[in-house]
Amino acid sequence: MRLRTGLAWGGLAAALCLPLALATASPLMQWRGPVYVTGCLAGIAALSLLLLQPLLASNRMPGLSPRQARRLHRLGGAVLAGAVGLHVGGLWITSPPDMIDALLFAAPAAFSLWGVLAFWLLAAAVILAALRHRAGLRSRRWHSRLACAAAGGSIVHAMLVQGLMEPVSKTLLCLCVAAAGAGLLRRRRASRAERPPAPEGAGPRRRRREP
After folding, report:
1. C-alpha dihedral over 167, 169, 174, 177, to 10 degrees?
2. For residue 58, what pLDDT band results from cuts at 50, 70 and 90?
3. pLDDT at residue 70 tops 70
């Protein structure tokens, strides 16, 4: 069991850290300013966190209790939001006109469109998670769907960008992110299918508030 746990966490650490480490060795670093480089590295870190988040949400990492997985998922969400903010902020400082065009969907590059779509989808997922106990929607379902849609947009965005990321590690990371998100949605769908139907005439069941 310990060997399995160690291998799982070691493999995850490699998948998260290797693309970032290879990006720091990119020759393109020599011609970019520190603010731009910081913003790009923050974007790579955010993409890596999109692999971790669905694994924690579905409690797929060995050695963690459901409560520990939820807490790490919330912490990861906060770090992810910060990384995305740093990514957008770094690019804004470097080239405000390009960022304005991107936010207005007027940029000529396709990766800008996908990046902005992923940004707003992720922002919606974060806001919904923060208000999950006050929202009238079934926030867990919508949060998962929005987050996975944001991950999909981020994958397309990353694959279209020819930047600091090493191509092979970028492709492998994107495949892992896609597999993790698809697995989360599949497990959520199976869980709903196995849930017994509510008795006829019964009102909506109140969900227990998670600690």
Report:
1. -170
2. confident
3. yes
> Does the structure show a pLDDT above 80 at 134?
no
Collapsing DSSP states into helix, strand and coil, what is residue 166? coil
3-state secondary structure of 84: helix
| Backbone dihedral angles phi then psi of residue 14, each to the nearest 5 degrees | -65, -45
Q: Is the pLDDT of residue 56 over 80?
A: yes
Query: How much of the chain is in helix, strand and coil states, percent to nearest 5?
Result: 75, 0, 25
Can you tell me the distance from the alpha carbon of 103 to that of 113, in angstroms, rounded to the nearest whole number?
8
180 located within any domain? yes
**180: exposed, middle or buried (C-beta count within 10 Å: 0-12, 13-18, 19+)?**
buried
Structure pTM?
A: 0.83
Q: Is residue 204 part of a domain?
A: no
Provide the residue range defining the domain that includes 42. 2-190
Q: How far apart are CA 101 and CA 106, in angstroms?
A: 5
pLDDT band at 209 (very low <50, low <70, confident <90, very high): very low
Q: Does 197 map to a domain? A: no
CA gyration radius for the chain? 19
CATH number, domain containing residue 36: 1.20.120
Number of domains in the chain: 1
Nearest residue to 18 via CA among 210, 179, 176, 201: 176
For residue 207, tell me if it sits in a domain.
Answer: no
